[in-house]
Amino acid sequence: EQRRLIQAQEAATTRREGLIVEMSIQAATEVANKTATKAAIAIRRNLSKVLASNAAKAKHASSAKAADKVVMREYWADWQVNPERYDGKAAFARDMLDKFPDWCNSKVIEGFCRDWEKEKPVK
Questions:
Q1: 38 Ramachandran zone, left/alpha/beta (phi>0; psi -120 to 50)
Q2: 87 burial class (0-12, 13-18, 19+ CB within 10 angstroms)?
Q3: Which residue positions in the chain have pLDDT lower than 50?
Q4: Which pLDDT tens digit goes with each residue over 60-90?
Q5: Beta carbons of 106 and 94 less than 8 angstroms apart
């Protein structure tokens, strides 16, 4: 009888340990699912930002102002070859404002000039 009692206790202990292991696996699975969900949400957010950024870049690249800037760059390159055309960046910017009325700020155009000066020469 004592032997049966010991066997019953051992069986109960084994079942209890099995339940604990099973509960641990379930808890770990839930944590993994929550972590995976958080990771998926983060990935979705990042993908959304990248898609929005790419769409904005494409929109800006195909805008009228982007085309104007390309032409301004050509005028600037020509000015670099013939520096007597303008007294300086401000004069160049004012002339570009006359040629491209959509632009409303000569300081922006002067900033383009500074950027273009830092780049490699146009050939």
A1: alpha
A2: exposed
A3: none
A4: 888 888 899 999 999 999 999 999 999 999 9
A5: yes
